[in-house]
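Two proteins, back to back. First:
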Amino acid sequence: PVETPDGAQARARSLPAPVTDVAKLCVCDLLVAQCDTNCCCDPDCGAEDFSLFTACSVPVVTGDSQLCSQKAAVYSLDVEANPPERIFKLIDQVNPSIFCIHATNYKQALYLKSPEIPTPENFDRLLDKFGGSTFSAEPDSWNLDTDAQNPPDTNETYRYEYGAPVHTEDAFLRLPSPVVSSWCSDANPAGFLVNQATKCIRSVSVEKCDSIQALSMLFYINSSILASAFQVNITVQSIVVQSQNGMRTLLNSSDVLRLPMVLDGLCINAVLGVNYHITHTDTGEIIEAAAAFVLGAISKETLSIEQSFEISFTQENTQPVPLSGNPGYVVGLPVRAGFRPQGYPFPAAFSSSNKHSQLTILQSTSTQDCLAAQGARAPVLFGYNMISGCKLRITAAMKCQPLAQTLLDVLKGQSFPEYVASFGNSQAQDVLDWVPITQLHISEQMISNPLQSSCQIPVSLGIEVKWTKYGSLVNPQARIVNVTATITTSTLKQLPSGRERIIPVTSSVVFTDISSPAEPGYKAWPTINIKLPFDFFYPFV
């Protein structure tokens, strides 16, 4: 309804009086009962002090900068006067921003409201109010039926941002999860680009299994996802039937919905797990959605079951790459790596020799034979220092150059990467999220050998990964900032014919946390041994 001018004036007169007098505010007044230099709003300063000022350190003093209109205290110096004088003005300042507060009519914001402490008596009420995915902190009188006033436009284009709930025609895409306890709550919305995996407990009854919505496939696919001019239907990708002893069987056809029903005292076709897979464009528009189901049977004795839910996102025309964290690396997950092929401005996935796009090292075998260990690789796990190796038996019949190339392939693999992802979820198109691998070569003398004196073979590969804690101190994220791969070669010399030697070949990985504090005894900053006045930090402690 349109508010009349008289009503607006009456409402303005009923507003609380301002609690801040800008004429009495002074942020540069630090000394007690003393005049602060160049502090024009300091009440301890007089005309003699102002005559010595060179400028006003705080020329304008305001209250809440978000208000559309407010009083402002303006201070300046009249240097032409003899002696110089301070000039004080109280003006009305207008906020040029269109997003400003016209009136502070929300009285609850003028004081601190103590939160309600949960008790056995009010726990259920607080859980109903705050236990959902969203809740309102505004008074009940402010709850307006916005959906009725602003009906959704069916032709609106939905381009999602990271973490935004995936909307459907009735609400949002559900990803059940435990809230307070381990019991399932269906109020958890799936966030865009947020890969999740949850498990929760669901109360069941065989007699009512056909009427429990959470046990039916329709509950998870009957709502279409809001995308662009059309709605994206959730298709059934696959159906796996799990027997009571845990054996799973993939059904050949997933076109027919299998709804829960009671048969011979069992509730069959009950949903035990759902795996969503969402395909989107690079602009954040969802174009395809599929769900894979795990169905099972529930006996009469069963009062509750454990359900598992998972959702993953893949950009169109790209291959899904397993992540090692979101965003920072998780200890124990593989270090992601890649190389920059010709014609591409960003690191790309590995070739078929390493389909998982991971940094790898030589994998030790039971035979410890370097020539037989070719192709055996182990992924480098973040945070784990690793060492592996093999033994090389050199005879007089071996040629130097083929042997050196073979050992290099054993140490580095067929396709050694050029870049390492700085974060566990770095995307290939984000150029700045990829750290180049610095490759060094070190040569050292070795014991005599039956090959040519000028021949050198690689005998070790050492990889050092430097990482740091990135982001908030409360929840720091592991970020790789530097990777160095050092190849050590040894010179081979002639031995009498018929002799042979065994040379150890090693590969190692070391992780160094460069964000760690200085070691004891190391003074990172100089120490100043002085005594400050007792009121130096007044009024602060």
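And the second protein:
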Amino acid sequence: AGAAMVARALWALLAALRAGWCLLPQSGYLHPDEFFQAPEVMAGDILNLQVYYPWEFLSSSPCRTVVFPLMTSGVMYWLIKSLQQLDICSSCINSYTLLVSPRLLFTIFSFILDYSVYRLAPFWEADPWKALVLLAGSYVTLVFYTRTFTNTLEGLLFALLMVLVSSRKSSGSSAEPTSSSLIGVITTAGFFNRPTFLAFALMPLLYWASLIVDSQKSIKTLINHFLRFILCACFTAFVFVTADTFYFTSVSLDNLYSTNKSNLIEAIVQLHDKMVVTPFNFLSYNLNPHNLALHGSHPRVTHFTVNGVMLFGMLHILAIGAGFKMLKKYIRHLMLVRWCYRGPPGLLVHPEGSPTLLLFYFVPLAFLSLFSHQEPRFLIPLILPLVLFSASPNRAVKWKLLIVLFNLLGALLFGCLHQGGLIPCLFHLEQLIHSPASSSHLRHYTLLFAHTYMPPRSLLNIKKTDVHVEVIDMAGAGEEALCQTAEQQASNFTCSDCHIFIIIPGTVRDTITKCGVPFKNETLIFPHLSMEDPPQIPVLSSGNWRSQLGLYILEL
């Protein structure tokens, strides 16, 4: 009882940390997709801000559904826009609210994971509070699940699917599945969010199907379950396709309503011809090895050997060890049955025990490993079966100190350090651009970003109608291209009050110094760690370490 009380208090503390750190906010920048798969697009559509639309959201190549961005970032931006229009909040739209409001919604949604763990733990014979502490204490939950990734939504939908397929009667036996309709909706919604959701859904769906087959005596009831699943899946797909088609094509509801009866059929035919099915476009693009190579190719074992360890540390390693032990035991049992009894092998273990959870973990991991482009965030939905497996009563959580230190290091690295100067830099520039001095008379700003992640322009809070701010993203340009651009900007003052800023990590600051362009002001934002241009260890040990772990804003 005492241990359970300590676990409850620890979970509450970690849950408060999750919410508080979101509001602080977290400065770490994990990957451009956390901005460019939802918030950046919705800021342009709803708030009419200057943004960069990624290619997946262009009408010429629609590969991402607009439904989830509208339901998450879109709703939050509409809310702060409404508050400002109603004069409830005079300056609701600023860099802080643009960053934090979508993240706050995702942080609230992240507690779906906690609810799922609490519901699932008794079914999978795990200690619920031990599992909740493992979940809430993981830096994956603290950092990744509070960010606006489609992978985050994928993990939440996977958790809901596991809850729906895992049901138990009060007597302890498996209950008859009654959630066929909801399972169909969630499976289809997950597929439209990310087609890779099918890899995560495979084992829960097979488990659900086996429960139906085992519990049904009537073929009519059996067919009824699958029919409800298919009908609800089709209806959900119809909703997504319709929403995406209206978003990505020029055909609008207003056009349909304004057409007379004679042209209505023609308008509907036109809409059908322009039908957009984003998952098929996504698959078509990603099944092409050449396209995947543009985003980076990795060995097929990267998820198993690198990404799993990077995300989950010892829990991943212990799961691999347990998997090999159980596989060895099952093969031995299989051989024993065949040699001694000449009968069907059967399963050595109870279907609701740890081996099934390991399949929920390793089967999606194996399917995702078939693709050459492998990023750690692709695996974050797997935290749910992993913590349930690790919290089973007969499996003591060893290496506690190592697990704590690993998650502290991960939270510090990805929540604070990784590209950690870019978001504060955009906050600083937004205040500068909208300062009273800039408002009193027009100033022109040129912002040149080099050797940083792609800057989300929405955080500058610039209306599309404003033309006095120009953003130039040089990405990882070489010294020659960078110097050429800097010299062009320095010699191209087209107005009496032009301000040109170069934003560059401290590790490559010498590159811009060699260009010979003069600076009149510089601001150092600390900390900022660029893994593409990492600091040299000898330099870090010198007195210049703050510069190496900083991001410079240099004014020409």
